[in-house]
Design goal:
The structure is a homohexamer.
Chain A (H helix, E strand, L loop, with lengths): L7 H8 L4 E6 L12 H17 L2 E2 L22 H17 L4 E6 L9 H9 L4 E6 L4 H9 L25 E2 L10 H8 L6 E2 L4 H23 L1
Chain lengths: ~230, ~230, ~230, ~230, ~230, ~230
């Protein structure tokens, strides 16, 4: 169940039995040919699947993250890192006020990882709060699946090309992997990355995508179980 | 069109012709028997309808607002007002960086109105930025329609009971209008408002709801036209 | 009594009997032909009168508010909304530390209304804190008096032209009501509003002004009584 | 002239000839037997006198400063230092927007001196901005006058006992000078300082007070001249 | 050369030829048997060696980072993530003001990586600014060396036991690798990790440590060359 | 002992007996011919000497302070005052979490003195916290020694020319004392102060420097004793 489909009485009823909550955070940023909401859509899909299986609630996804380097690409809406910290703090603090105690933050965007500090800072204020932060794409199982299929996982390539993140047809071929460049003004970043993919194949067969989704889904379910123990 | 269905190239193509953007902000807070996302769902629906008619893009809705007084009701996730100001500033600043110049902020929640200051503060930094802030429920046309049907518009009563905000059956009757109480700890607020409605009828006939939606839709379209002129 | 005429021992003596405090906030901003301090002078006058009648103390008025849209008019000193929130929070927190528990915020300026969120946010931290926020000019009684005299109340017109806010002679006639314009750079605002009045009559007969002052004064006294009950 | 007695047109007329502005900041805090507004009243009086002589405008005084150590004394309203910095920044920034370029900050409170950093930080953003910060009580001339009369200047003793800061009769005698204590919770500070004076004579003859006022007044006038050169 | 050994004239002379600067950031936090400054000492040593070879200047190291999870271990001094962002922003902004344009941030602490966002945010303000962020311990070469010697690199184990980070004798044996635990109050973290090492061998032979240092040193030199090109 | 030479177990052992901590804060800014770290090196040397005598621990020095006025001199790295407040707050808060209760802040830089407010603000939150702030150069004993030797103490002149702050030869003569100038853009400041010294002799005989160091050292020891009583 997700918040949008519930009223407060239903959420109160849930809290009588369970104090876990999934929070989805992502980004609105260029993903080459994929939806600019890709980094929200993937963790949201994982959360929905895990909620169906476990009954754990999903809060409203935060669609914005820290993406200053992509601001020259239209459709990128970036929060300053300090703003992101404040939002996540307020989300956790509010839910804690009502009895939620165990949180699983499902993050879809690499640039957000610095916000994990909020989980530790808040736990020092509220010792009953416990939480996991989950970045699906850096999970070892994802690396193994990719390696087994001879695919390099990277930003906006096949790795994120799920059926639900595609908004147009995708190129057939493969893009060479760009060099690392220094942090610089967003226009330099765009100039360097062109269509926005960080290289490699643009798509992978459906079976590969399913395999990845299933593996990550299982990890989410496992983390929820650990929190519920 | 909304961001979720587009990639950056499509948004860039849009910007070649148009520099308007609709931004939806709302709240995740108790709405009595209605969805806790009610304050997002209504402006989102207005934005979707207006986008279909005018072609103006809709950014990803911010689902959180300032609702400190409702924090004793489960499912209320409130940003400190200072956080909300920062988020709105970052949203506008990011989009401005890419060529958006005219913004229509569709707000669904009374507690957010202080954030309108951001529109003026940013315009002083970026003189090409212009924007309207639209609070559908305080529009005179809504008041007229309500008066014509002998209905009192208020928080979480019939006024917000659209088909798409209902998550359960609604009570049939009418709730007496509670007194004004001082600002106080959220538990006092909950004690005072009980189920969370601010009183009046819980539902209105579909025709009334359609009339209100149509009137507000028309106002949104009109504001978009003014921005485009 | 107001703080300026008291030392701390006298304030301590007051606190032995009463825990109410009036706080005045306003703005320093263009008010057409009227004093740039108009938005402070009016609530300050109401507070002084109510203090005389009830004995409730009045803290030092904060003369600055959020007026970014008027910054092209000389004499406008505007706080960022985030600054205003911080100041109000510190004012309430300080007084609470010493035993004040019930606050009446007398606000003179529309742009400040977003700061009301502070009252609710602080009450969640300090459950003994209770407060009312009073905007004299949007009170229904003011609307009724204006309607009875066929006058349209608006910024810097007759509505605010009390003897103690006048610093020069006022125009005799009436100004046509300007259209609504989008939020934009302050120079556009000045260009649109010219002398700064939002239209209507520049002055009203003394009896009207007295009637309004008396009605608002009575509301202030009533709110103080509610807080003291 | 002070802002309260002017409308924006009059301030604009002033700016045609002069770009100087006096800003008064002080504190609302215990001053033993003297008004809790003492630290505002003194620089305000100096500003009024200097304005009369030079014609330089005086902005609305900020009545609050940084006084965390006195919060156990009723009537002390203290801003966090970070809030004070923000307010002063906004005051200067606003006035600069309208053409003021040279500022004299007349400060009445020792705890505020850290806010002087704002003058330098803003000047780096706005190279045309220049300003002096004036703390009347640490001026060498004040020290000389005090020494000549065998008086020790200190917080809330004779030094600040001007006719316009007195709200009750003052003790006749002399208080022994308390030891320095570490920074600690405000209750410890109150326990240590008792009535709040930092020791020495409670009053001085009128001639001494006049001498001090005149000397400081002259310094203010001199600084205004330097700014106007 | 490092700042401590130079005056401003010498730094100005350097800037005539070179606009690169190394900035060292680290942490003051428990490192089991090693110095609580370990995360500063290692990047500082790398910077000193690279400076000797290349002549690129090294700014004063920031000894504090984001370590909220270790606050139950004495000697841990942690900045809130928001504070760390502000400090890094001020460091870069200040140096940029004087002509430094290319920065290499040598970071010694995993908890700081979220601050990398500052590099991108500032570059959008100052397009001439370019920078690399270097985390020595996650470099692939370090992983390869560790793997070749059958060692698991982790917090406060052999990986960080350089001669210059040792302050006492180290245990001989090996610690089993603790499980992953949720983010929680710092006392839980201490309870879980005991002596503070994250497991594995406490020490490695000098040749291994030299090999790692040399490999990282070479990477630092390479990044400086890229910035200088 | 200083933190860099200790691990957390040693610091825990210290806390079993003592709850005092010395914190050194300074600046990285132009000091004419002296090291740009002068304001750190002096309090650090005092702390080291006092630690040797008393056994009280010294935390890692913060090398940055508030120096906006010197930003036109290469090698000046300045924190905004608001940033400095946050860092000092985090330093004290962290150490307090682990049992430190009495703090001696050894400050080397005049521009930092506004940060003393943090000591009082935090003590109101944590009533067991007590602290002294020590500015060695404004101590009366320093004034007396200077006067006895006919020397004027000032920024970057002989007063700060200790053997350990010298990085080059110093000029022999004397510089005339520059006038006071208004706060203004940093380039104006540099233009006014030239080599950066505020005038007077560039050096003093070793005996004078020793006398000053000994006198300040004694004051530090005395303050530590007061905190330990």
């Amino acid at each position: 169940m997700k918040f949008a489909d519930m009223n407060w009485m239903q959420i109160e009823a849930y809290l009588a039995d369970d104090d876990r909550l999934m929070l989805v955070i992502g980004a609105t940023e260029q993903h080459a040919y994929l939806s600019v909401l890709t980094d929200v859509l993937i963790p949201e899909a994982l959360a929905a699947a895990a909620s169906e299986q476990t009954g754990v609630l999903v809060g409203p996804p935060l669609p914005f993250g820290s993406s200053p380097y992509f601001l020259a690409y239209p459709g990128t809406i970036s929060l300053r890192m300090g703003t992101l910290l404040a939002v996540l703090e307020d989300m956790l603090h509010s839910a804690f006020r009502q009895g939620f105690r165990k949180f699983l933050v499902l993050n879809g965007h690499g640039g957000n990882r610095g916000a994990k500090a909020v989980l530790d800072e808040l736990a020092n204020q509220f010792p009953e709060m416990q939480s996991y932060w989950y970045d699906w794409w850096v999970s070892p199982v994802v690396g193994e699946i990719a390696a087994r299929h001879d695919l390099t996982p990277s930003h906006a390539n096949w790795l994120e090309a799920f059926p639900f993140t595609r908004v147009t047809d995708l190129p057939e071929g493969e893009k060479s992997l760009p060099d690392r460049i220094p942090s610089g003004e967003a226009s330099l970043v765009r100039q360097h990355f062109g269509d926005g993919s960080f290289g490699g194949h643009y798509q992978a067969p459906d079976e590969v995508m399913d395999e990845i989704f299933s593996a990550c889904f299982q990890e989410v379910v496992d983390l929820l179980e650990k929190l519920g123990a």
